Amino acid sequence: MSNPIERSSPRSGQQIAERHPTREEIELRAYQIYVERGSAQGNDLEDWLQAESELIENYGKTGQTAKATGVKVHAMVA
Question: Which residues contact 49 (CB under 8 A, 6 or more apart)?
Fold first, then answer.
């Protein structure tokens, strides 16, 4: 009877760190988009989706953590 052969899965060798933007990163970028549009209200969802899309694209291109610029968020007004 033969010994079982250990097979390594593609993930067992070199693992690729797949990172996605955090809620805080998306929130910050969405706020930046809101400010860039002149703080006009009513586009919360569009701003969020645009921010999420931009950050995901940025992560895909760099393979590293995408950091939003240093805009401080005090509170988002709905």
Answer: none
